[in-house]
Write a structure and sequence with these properties.
Order of helices and strands: HHHHHEE
Number of strands: 2
Helix content: 40-55%
Shape: globular
Strand content: 5-15%
Number of helices: 5
Number of domains: 1
Length: 136
């Protein structure tokens, strides 16, 4: 368990350095909330909810990745509030875009896209897989 805690600390060390309270106070507050949510979510994992927890952690990671991409962006020069708004709006499509898929493309059957895959029970007691439409 100590190794996993060390891995999580290393994961957050990057963001700890990147998102400073003096330079970006609103983003820092959001970051602290996401970090706490990550630890709380991770602490609640068990065999029955592992995949749900996985998708929750990926959502947090997507938000952190978007924030880190935009925090020092010199092209768009977005305000903190604009970055937070983009982060909260775009995180659901982050991994889709990362692998080159648009909103209309079918996602692969992967843990990365678990939240976007919908399972429906068929009459033969087998589950069929249908991609969920991304929420706008």
């Amino acid at each position: 368990m100590e190794n996993s805690r060390t891995e999580v600390q290393r994961y957050f060390a990057y963001f700890d350095q990147l998102i400073q309270p003096i330079q970006k106070p609103m983003m820092y507050e959001m970051y602290q909330q996401l970090k706490q949510k990550f630890f709380d979510t991770l602490a609640s994992v068990d065999a029955e909810n592992a995949l749900t927890i996985w998708t929750d952690l990926l959502d947090i990671d997507a938000k952190l990745q978007i924030m880190s991409d935009l925090i020092n962006d010199d092209v768009f020069e977005l305000s903190e509030q604009e970055i937070i708004q983009l982060t909260n709006n775009d995180y659901k499509n982050y991994f889709r875009e990362l692998v080159g898929l648009n909103e209309l493309d079918q996602v692969p059957h992967s843990l990365l896209f678990l939240r976007q895959i919908q399972y429906k029970r068929c009459p033969s007691n087998v589950y069929s897989i249908h991609n969920k439409e991304p929420k706008q």
